[in-house]
Amino acid sequence: MENFTFYSPTEFVFGKDTEKEVGELLLKSGAKKVFLHYGGGSIKKTGLYDRVTASLKEKGIDFVELGGAKPNPVDSLVYEGIELCRNESCDFVLAVGAGSAIDSAKAIAAGVKYDGDFWDFFDQKATIEDALPVGVVLTLPAAGSEGSVATVITKEDEGLKRGLGSDLLRPRFSIINPELTYTLPPWQTAAGVVDMISHILERYISKSEDVILTDRLCEATLISIMEAARKVTNDPENYEARATICWAGTIAHNGILGVGRREEWTTHGLEHELSALYDMTHGAGLAVLFPAYMEYTLDEDVERYYRLATQAFGVPENHYDKKSVALEGIKRLKDFFREIGMPVTMHEANAKEEDIPKLLETLEKNQGRKFGSFKKLNLKDARKIYEMACA
Amino acid sequence: MENFTFYSPTEFVFGKDTEKEVGELLLKSGAKKVFLHYGGGSIKKTGLYDRVTASLKEKGIDFVELGGAKPNPVDSLVYEGIELCRNESCDFVLAVGAGSAIDSAKAIAAGVKYDGDFWDFFDQKATIEDALPVGVVLTLPAAGSEGSVATVITKEDEGLKRGLGSDLLRPRFSIINPELTYTLPPWQTAAGVVDMISHILERYISKSEDVILTDRLCEATLISIMEAARKVTNDPENYEARATICWAGTIAHNGILGVGRREEWTTHGLEHELSALYDMTHGAGLAVLFPAYMEYTLDEDVERYYRLATQAFGVPENHYDKKSVALEGIKRLKDFFREIGMPVTMHEANAKEEDIPKLLETLEKNQGRKFGSFKKLNLKDARKIYEMACA
User: Fold this and answer.
1) What is the mean pLDDT of residues A306-325?
2) Which residue of chain B comes nearest to A170, CA vs CA?
3) Would you tell me how many other CB atoms lie within 10 Å of the CB of residue B24?
4) B213 to chain A nearest CA, in Å?
5) CB spacing of B256 vs A251 below 8 angstroms
6) Alpha-carbon distance A8 to B34, whole Å?
7) How much is the ipTM here?
């Protein structure tokens, strides 16, 4: 087990009707003027916008708003948010929406307190030293941004999709009402499920030895997510299954499932190029790439994949042929992604084999020529993984 | 699943040599003068005291100290600590030790900021509205106080042992170095293991339906604790097993294993009377009482105990006779407690059947005449549980 720090100071307020507590939580956080940030307007259709703003008004909290956050949130909206937030002297950023709204809210919160160009943080030219506090009302369990240090922003003109993390970006509070997810399109639910599974696998598939408690917590969460995802396919208003997915999405990325392990994040790096080039849903890109990454790195640690297959994916044990068991585990994961409606090949995701050179070009810009710690990879390996994902 | 708030803002710094980071963590917390609180002096024998104070000196942090915290920490030391802490104008309370030192440190931290008698908090005559920040260097994984809201103090003259919780008492940071636990006497290791298992069971044995993810996380942790406890019996310097026990002890009580469930805490209430009357080690008292409580409440929800038996204690499934399976699970837990050297009857713990009226008398003072939510209990039920624990 590696030494670790686990720090997850966010107050998670979870359950039915909890969005009505947002005013009270803002008051407790000392917010006076809130910068309210959201996505494409679905929160207005569902009435969530009205409930949230009513709660703010009830507590006498002033706010200005900026909608328009899209999946793979872009730098232009962050610049716009920073300017508006400064002009209006907001002291708290509230994201109401999915990971995209939360991620751009985090970037705005950091950018407001920085004199230079906020992209400096993503270019590693500057470190976040101050940020406005951020709060969240979550509408889509997927990115885990409601409990994480992370934000991922796309710089449109250069086609760069980059992430960074800072404890200063961890939300003060995150409100999670599973009922808000009843009306999600099946595609979005499924892409979210793939995303959270990937967040666990990026921690689980690691060379750190002997972290048995973390392993078991990861396996327990994987089993629960897959079981719940199958339930909501036929029964989208199943509260318990929705709640399981919501909470699993949060703990998949707040750090608790990574303690004691060196984390990996290679497949996320490979996927960022896919979603930047095609504006692909992040979860869909992960569904395409993760099984390919796993197969490509299988020989690096068959034992690890064997454990995953038997403890999380229900493959019967067979000590005489662990590699076949491990491969069957990867196949089951791929089958599961397909079952819930995700693409599992580049072709199914409308990505083209002939674009692989383009993907490698931006990958090199973002990650350099070498990456990965579970298996050390270079651009040639990356090409092979993209190729494997085509079939 | 019940609505819940999960809030665990403590920064957990875990691993080898981490006690050397205490000065840096105090500096980050803004501490200027530290009230250093510890137990019976074992930290001086092991050199931990020297390493901690060296780290403080290195960072230029002034401190005053008060040792003497004992298992079942007492009010007199809390009063002494409050006075010293005030006279010396300390602005941070650092506990170096086991749950006892942490619990009295928490009571001191709250008492310093309160004009009245700190026992008012435990008498429910007052609510904690302010407290000095608390930090921890943990030496014994057991109470989980390093990550919890809770403190339990014994009022000696009246023989009352009472607990309370407040988010203001959650440690700012907790340093957990598993190597510090290598030299623990086997009895203390075992009592700690019982304590953390009990913290999970107080959450798991509950009537709240459909909290499958929390259930699985609990079961994963129970399995890991029991496996690791067996390892350290023969191999006390097994780092991985010690680390598993340490981290399990923390997550068993920081709230993550209780989300979505109504928590119980009845057996803890019953045990407090045992440890108050006999100055018994808390974990030993729990080893005596928990199996009795479980047997007594089995019929309330056989399904629940069946799941526990099959998913955490390795009893084979048998859908035709779930009650026998459930009973076998309770037996296995009791056998495990015995195997690691814990008493499993009042007699083995040097408690006397003829004292039961005394236990009931203080129980009534502390808890009233009715308690429990999994099964509603009165003093007659409590008598029966104590009696069952005699055999």
Assistant:
1) 98
2) B9
3) 15
4) 6
5) yes
6) 25
7) 0.96
